[in-house]
Amino acid sequence: MKCPLIINGAGGRMGATLVRLAQSDSELTLAGVVEPSSRAQGLEGLGCPFGKSLGEVLKTVKGAVVIDFTSPEASLGTARLAAETGTAAVIGTTGFTPEQLDELRAAARQAPLFWAPNMSVGINTLLAVLPELVKKLGPAYDLEIMEIHHNKKKDAPSGTALKLGECLAEARGWELREKACCCREGIIGERPREEIGLQTLRGGDVVGDHTIYFFGPGERIEVTHRAHSRETFAQGALRAAKWLKDQKPGKLYSMADMLRV
Question: Which residues bind NADP(+) (predicted)?
Fold first, then answer.
């Protein structure tokens, strides 16, 4: 049976990619699209229900999985509505505060919810292997992360960089919020041993580059992931939607749950 989808934010860059790929996927049905902004032109001609709010579309489309790559506030609205209606939802939005993530987790007790700051299979496989690299190299290696994104990205550091930082910190037995350094300027003194640097570059149309540096005595290791297209994230989200339709409420699912890594 095909998995019906509702794309929230269908007129945005990511939403348009999701719509195009969903239409060409034999295992999916584009069941509805939502776009409240002026970018809605052309969406009414897709041959499926269109609305300016998710609630409007959910009144006519039942049993679909919602995919949402919008903004933290809008995605929280999606999660609340999903919890109220028992609708499954895949969320790929970044920039959530810790309190907002707690609200997502609470909503996941009422409906199947999936959240990942990066839907790339490559990034999530990297998250699975990085802890072993940290442990084998030992405490003599300084840990740094550099991320590069297009000039339209609104949050910094990226959600992926923060997730990578949390992965490194956990492998060292640290809390990232206590060890992260997102800015260096002026006479800062020697680098603390217990620190993880997260540096941000913005420019052009870069989809997403993330490099993890291990600076050791006499050598360094660089591990880089580059996303060449938004399709990387869209395909991951579509795969998550197919998987999520068979899951039950109770926890906020992640790529690790789907990939079992």
Answer: 39
